[in-house]
Design a protein that fits this description.
single chain; mainly beta; Jelly Rolls; 8-stranded antiparallel sheet; 7-stranded antiparallel sheet; globular
């Protein structure tokens, strides 16, 4: 099945790259198991492009929207991650990751790509779960994380330019490992914009 629905998402989701395994639960739950050596990254050094991220994508019906989820990752290998993804085309996209760093620490990481990728590690998280959120408007996007789903910390505020056909979604990756399972619960979509993109309100 290439398409499926979640009651919390207003449009059908479609696999951009098929995962090793997946399961859609009741309404607001999705588990994605990425296969080995999977990632989405355009190395700024020019050394290569990887584009096989297991991602379930949908076309948001609103020009401004928020997408958030509680993310639990079965970390095993470096760069294993659960991901929120915003994409216009193959070389214009951004992802917010809960990722296993080279220092073996669960870390919030953001990657913004205009032709090549700009990669930035942010907060180290204790444990295997965190809340991630994207807040998108036609002018700009903000990424946030939260430990409790209520108080949000800004990770990155940026623009991909004016997007004509944006898609958003959930993904799992295992760039150096054999597989990675990411479980998304409390998946929430709502139209509209934040009052303040920087403090997350």
């Amino acid at each position: 099945m290439s398409e499926f629905t979640l009651s919390s998402i207003p449009r059908r989701l479609q696999w951009r790259n098929r995962p090793l395994d997946w399961d859609a639960g009741e309404g607001t739950r999705l588990t994605i198991t990425a296969s080995e050596l999977t990632d989405l990254f355009i190395d700024p050094s020019g050394s290569g492009v990887t584009d096989n991220l297991a991602s379930a994508m949908f076309a948001p019906p609103d020009p401004s929207f928020l997408l958030s989820a509680r993310v639990v990752v079965d970390f095993a290998s470096t760069y294993d991650a659960g991901v929120l993804l915003l994409m216009e085309k193959d070389d214009v996209w951004a992802k917010l990751c809960f990722e296993f760093s080279p220092q073996k620490e669960p870390t919030v990481v953001s990657v913004v790509t205009h032709g090549v990728s700009d990669d930035c590690n942010s907060a180290v998280i204790k444990g295997r779960e965190v809340f991630l959120r994207m807040a998108h408007t036609p002018e700009a996007t903000a990424f946030h994380y939260s430990l409790d789903g209520r108080f949000w910390h800004m990770v990155r505020y940026f623009s991909l330019g004016r997007l004509n056909y944006p898609k958003a979604g959930l993904a799992s990756q295992s760039p150096t490992g054999r597989k990675c399972t990411s479980t998304f619960t409390e998946i929430t979509y709502r139209p509209g914009a934040l009052k303040d993109r920087r403090n997350g309100e």
